[in-house]
Write a structure and sequence with these properties.
Elements: E1 9-13, H1 17-29, E2 33-37, H2 40-49, E3 54-57, H3 66-75, E4 81-86, H4 91-99, E5 104-107, H5 112-127, E6 133-136, E7 139-142, E8 147-150, E9 153-155, H6 159-168, E10 175-177, H7 178-185, H8 194-207, E11 213-218, E12 222-227
Parallel strand pairs: 1-2, 1-3, 3-4, 4-5
Antiparallel strand pairs: 6-7, 7-8, 8-9, 10-12, 11-12
Helix pairs in contact: 2-3, 6-8
C-alpha cells in the first residue's frame, strides 16, 4: 500500500448524520474530497480499504468508542493523520487520544472554518513541509488559499484538478502512478476510471498552458510534472 497519501482525501466518522453532512458539504465546497461513515466498524473497514490522509473522528460512536478505532488503526502503523472532534472536553480524554496517535483534538461546537484551517495546517506540515507558496517564475500555487496563478492571473480549477495539482507539486520530476491518482481522486460513491483521469489531466494541462509547468504521460505507468527552466542567453 502507498503511504505517501494525498492529504485532501479525508474520512469523517460521526454518528450525528446532520452534523456529518454539514461538515462534509462545507469541506467539499473547499475542494476537499470527503467520504462519510457513521459507526466504528465502518470506519475501520474504510480506513483499511482506501487511502486516506486524514480521519476526522468522533469519540462517541455506536458499537464501540472512537478511541478504540484510533488505537486499532495505529496498532497497524497506518500513517493516517487523525483529528478528534468530540463534545468531551476533559483533559483525560485529550491526553489519551494524543498519546494514542491523534494529531489534534477539537471540542464541539467548533466553527467549520476552524476545522478547515486545522486540516490545511496539517496538510502544509505533512506534505508541503510548511511551504505556503510554490513559486516557479510565472506560475505559483498558494497552499493555504489553494489558488493557482499564471502571470498573476487566477487559474480557475475544479476540485479534482486542484487535487491532482497538489499531488504533483511535492513530487516534481517524479513519476506518479496512474493507479495512485485514480485512488486519490475516487470516493466511496464515485470511483475514478482510467478515462475520467485522462480527462481531468487533459483539462488541467490545458489550464496550465502559458506557464512553465507541464504534465506528461509516462507510458504504462502514470504521469510526471516538470517545470521548464529558462535557457540562459548565449553572449555573442
Amino acid at each position: 500500500m502507498e503511504t505517501n497519501f494525498n492529504f485532501m482525501r479525508i474520512l469523517i466518522v460521526e454518528d450525528d448524520i446532520l452534523l456529518s453532512n454539514g461538515i462534509a458539504t462545507y469541506l467539499r465546497n473547499q475542494n476537499i474530497s470527503v467520504d462519510q461513515v457513521f459507526d466504528a466498524n465502518s470506519a475501520i473497514e474504510a480506513v483499511f480499504s482506501n487511502q486516506y490522509s486524514l480521519l476526522l473522528l468522533d469519540l462517541k460512536l455506536p458499537e464501540y468508542s472512537g478511541v478504540s478505532v484510533l488505537k486499532k488503526i495505529k496498532e497497524h502503523n497506518n500513517p493516517i493523520m487523525v483529528i478528534v472532534l468530540t463534545a468531551l472536553d476533559g483533559l483525560n480524554e485529550k491526553v489519551i487520544c494524543l498519546n494514542s496517535g491523534a494529531c489534534d483534538y477539537l471540542v464541539k461546537p467548533v466553527a467549520l472554518e476552524e476545522i478547515e484551517a486545522r486540516i490545511k495546517a496539517m496538510h502544509r506540515k505533512e506534505f508541503f513541509q510548511n511551504q505556503m507558496i510554490f513559486n516557479f517564475e510565472n506560475f505559483s500555487y498558494d497552499t493555504s488559499s489553494r489558488r493557482a496563478l499564471i502571470k498573476d492571473k487566477v487559474v480557475t480549477l475544479t476540485a479534482k484538478e486542484t487535487q491532482v495539482l497538489e499531488i504533483f507539486l511535492p513530487r516534481l520530476s517524479q513519476v506518479v502512478p496512474r493507479t495512485y491518482l485514480q485512488d486519490q481522486l475516487s470516493t466511496i460513491d464515485n470511483e475514478i476510471t482510467h478515462n475520467s483521469l485522462e480527462i481531468i489531466i487533459s483539462r488541467l494541462r490545458k489550464k496550465l498552458e502559458g506557464s512553465r509547468a507541464s504534465i506528461n504521460p509516462v507510458r504504462g505507468i502514470g504521469y510526471i510534472m516538470d517545470i521548464q527552466k529558462i535557457k540562459a542567453k548565449q553572449s555573442s
